């Protein structure tokens, strides 16, 4: 098997792996392997060191182009805070678990307990999450409706 074929097979394996385990990273390495493979097919006497240098350089170039592409054209998501549990809690109503005293306490949201900071409130009080700072929920009192 020629070195060019090896690089093209490597590109194919990387591309298929990207499809099986999506992460939007192996595709750029696959592109670098494909370019190196085509260059090696065109220049069969290319030394192995030059092939690996080509692969490394094209990997860097492909990753930089990919990063810029995703910065300029971000992928839209139906749930942009999917992996940001804290941010998903903003606006949620929580119950004070340990009284908030001197701006420190704990609140319960669902089956989780979180450290909280906010105005003094007794255990059992209902509060609204307004921010998350370093894993601490910032809460405020819920405004009572006026009659």
Set down the secondary structure blueprint.
Elements: H1 3-20, H2 26-42, H3 48-72, H4 85-88, E1 93-101, E2 104-109, E3 112-117, E4 126-133, E5 136-141
Parallel strand pairs: 3-5
Antiparallel strand pairs: 1-2, 1-4, 2-3, 4-5
Helix pairs in contact: 1-2, 2-3
Task: Write out key terms for the chains shown.
147 residues, 5 strands, alpha+beta, 5-stranded mixed barrel, rod-shaped
Overview of the structural elements:
- The chain has 147 residues and is an alpha+beta fold.
- The chain is 44% helix and 24% strand.
- It has a five-stranded mixed β-barrel with strand order 1-2-3-5-4.
- Strand 2 and strand 3 (112-117) form a beta hairpin.
- Helix 1 (3-20) runs antiparallel to helix 2 (26-42) and helix 2 (26-42) crosses helix 3.
- The protein is rod-shaped.
- The N and C termini lie far apart (83 Å).
- The mean pLDDT is 89.
In short:
By secondary structure, the chain is α+β, with helices and mostly antiparallel strands. It has helices at residues 3-20, 26-42, 48-72, 85-88; strands at residues 93-101, 104-109, 112-117, 126-133, 136-141. The longest helix is centred in the middle third of the chain and has 25 residues, at 48-72.
Order of helices and strands: HHHHEEEEE
Q: Report helical residue fraction.
A: 40-55%
Radius of gyration equals 27 Å
List the total number of helices: 4
Strand content: 15-25%
Low-confidence spans: pLDDT under 50, at least 5 residues? Answer: none
On the 0-100 scale, what is the average pLDDT?
A: 89
> Structural class of the helix and strand makeup?
alpha+beta
Spatial ordering of strands, largest sheet: 1-2-3-5-4
Q: Major β-sheet, in short?
A: 5 strands, mixed, barrel
